Amino acid sequence: MKIRFFGAAQRVTGSKHLITTDSGTQILLDCGMFQGINTSELNLSFGFDPKEVDILLLSHAHIDHSGLIPRLVKQGFNGKIYCTPATLDLCKIMLLDSARIQERDLDRVNQRRKNRGEELLEYLYEEEDVYLALSLFVPQPLNKPFYIDKDVKVEFYNAGHILGSAGIYLSFETPHYTKTLFFTADIGRKGDRILDDPAPFPQADYIICESTYGDRLHEPDIDAHSRLLDMVYKTCVQKRGKLIIPAFAVDRTQEMVFILDQLESSGRLPSIPVYVDSPLAVEATRIMIRHKEDYNQEILDYIEKDGDAFGFKNLTYITDVQASKALNFRPEPCIIISASGMAEAGRIKHHIANNVEDRKNTILIVGYCSPNTLGAQLKAGNSTVKIFGEDKLVRADVEVMDSFSAHADYKEMMEYLSCQKVEKVKNLFLVHGEIKTQEAFREKLLGQGFRKVTIPAQGEVYEL
Predict the structure, then answer these.
(1) 3-class DSSP assignment, residue 176
(2) How far apart (Å, rounded) are the C-alpha atoms in residues 366 and 96?
(3) Are 31 and 58 in contact (CB under 8 A)?
(4) Which of 40, 142, 226, 371 places its Cα 20 to 30 Å from the Cα of 104?
(5) Which intervals hold domain Beta-Casp (predicted)?
């Protein structure tokens, strides 16, 4: 049996790991899109033949894990796609949104290429490819084993990263041996404001582990309510400006709304308009409301008392394009929460473009941003950023609240892995991280007693 790494190898995005069993069955773990500057070419070619892949196991709906599924189907994949029920519901909206965004963005890029006399780029996929892909999905609940082949048993374990996210445990059972492999995918954090904690998993021979924050610790668990409220007062009350919050449409947007809901319910939030400007986030909120099985007890108790964790006075959900554009011409202070969280696509780019040069405003980064994305440039303190081909001076304040991250830091990841007897793990592969981060995390894991920690390169193959 062998595994080959075709994405998220010494980088964060593009999660794709291909297992080939001794009987020749090909199992793909995730099929994510590469994101950030200079990744277009990486998304055009998989490095393997999609027609030869038999099964796809999907950990969660984030685009860097699911975003190339329609292209996989477009190029010939026709197998089953297994995921949790909530992940399927989210993919129904996120993959369609991805198709529309990349079509719009590519149209703009191709217009510039056409003007320069350059060759036009092809669409990764279109909406019809998404619908075809969705027809192949087979939802499976957490903690209930199922077979994807006569010799391969799979079980999903709650990862606590976003709604529906799961670690994937595979048992390869033949008359001659049994081997086990666990794919952590993205590891969530204990104490999430909405979701249950990540669940421990059985002993594994091999582990594929994310390493996004493998070299750092999140800031201490500050009073997020008070800090956010302080920014609202400084920006919206004192400076009469706008608080712009790039937020992932799934989980992060709902988390921000939940905090604002609590502040409003307690009478602490100033009476200013709050806008969730993202059709995707609006749909994701509806889906989240339907999947309370993933909630922790705190939010369930709040809903029992308050009636609604995602709706309050002065909160408006916007889907209409004209209503979104109108926000740029409203002079009054407000809070705008919009996707994407890395500010790399969607309506948030327009809001930042229209507000980043005004000193009255604040841009609040509340999650991980891949290197070279607009969010990462703002987070790094760049004095200018390029948006839609134009240089913009960064005059607005830029604030960061890392405590909102849905990715575990290195201590939290090591605690998550503590359910394992390290001497029984034959090899732990690090993915979904930048190489320097992975090297630092490897040293920490070796110090914890793991015998072998490997950092695979793009396209590298390993025998298990």
Answers:
(1) coil
(2) 25
(3) yes
(4) 371
(5) 253-378
- Rounded to an integer, what distance in angstroms lies between the CA atom of residue 174 and that of residue 214? 35
pLDDT (0 to 100) of residue 457: 97
Give the SS3 label for residue 113: helix
Tokens of 107: 């149209």
Task: Indicate where the chain has its CATH 3.40.50.10890 domain(s).
Answer: 224-404
Amino acid sitting at position 206: Y
Residue 5 vs residue 111, higher pLDDT: 5
380/374 Cα distance (integer angstroms): 10
Cβ–Cβ under 8 Å, residues 215 and 410: yes
Q: Where in the chain is the domain with CATH 3.60.15.10?
A: 2-216+406-463
Q: How many CB atoms lie within 10 A of CB 260?
A: 23
CATH number of 224-404: 3.40.50.10890
pLDDT in tens, 349-376: 999 999 999 999 999 999 878 778 899 9
Packing angle, helices 279-290 and 85-115, rounded to 10: 170
Q: Tens digits of per-residue pLDDT, 118-169?
A: 888 888 999 999 999 999 999 999 999 999 999 999 999 999 999 999 999 9
Please determine, looking at this structure, whether the domain spanning 2-216+406-463 carries the CATH number 2.30.30.100.
no
